[in-house]
Amino acid sequence: MKPDFSADELARLLDRPRSELLALRDAGLIDLDGDDCFDDLDLVRAQVLRDYLDQGYSPVDLANAIRDGTVSPFLGELLFAAGPTYSIEEAAAKGRGRRRATEATPDRSGPHARRSL
Asked: Is 109 a domain residue?
C-alpha cells in the first residue's frame, strides 16, 4: 500500500507553501487521480517541478508547456504521461492479456533467426 499525504504533509516534506502544491494540483500536475490525497508519485512530481517554479513558471504555464512539449522535465514521459492511467489491478490484467498473446507467438530467436547489424 502506497502512503498518502495531506497537502500540509506534502508541503512540509517539500518545504514549499501549501498554496503552491494546491496550485500544481489545480493545474493537473500532481494528484492526477483527483482523490485529494497525495502519494509518493506526487511527491516526486512536485520535486521535479520545483526548479521550473523557481525559474518563474506559474503552475498553469508549466502544465501547458509540458503538454505542448516546450518543457521536458526529467522523467516527464513517466511522471506526466498524457495517456490513460490504470489501477494496479487494471494494469495487471492488461499484462496478463499481453503475456497470453506473446505465448501464442512462435519463438523466432533460435540460432537461425535473422539479426540486424
From this structure: no
pLDDT digits (tens, 9 = 90+) for 47-69: 989 989 999 999 999 888 888 88
pLDDT at 21 over 90: yes
> The whole model's pTM is what?
0.64
The structural domain count of the chain equals: 1
DSSP the chain: ----B-HHHHHHHHT--HHHHHHHHHTTSS-TT-SS-B-HHHHHHHHHHHHHHHTT--HHHHHHHHHHTS---TTHHHHS-SS----HHHHHHHHHHHHHHHHTSPP--STT-----
| Domain span including residue 20 | 7-103
* In a domain? residue 28: yes
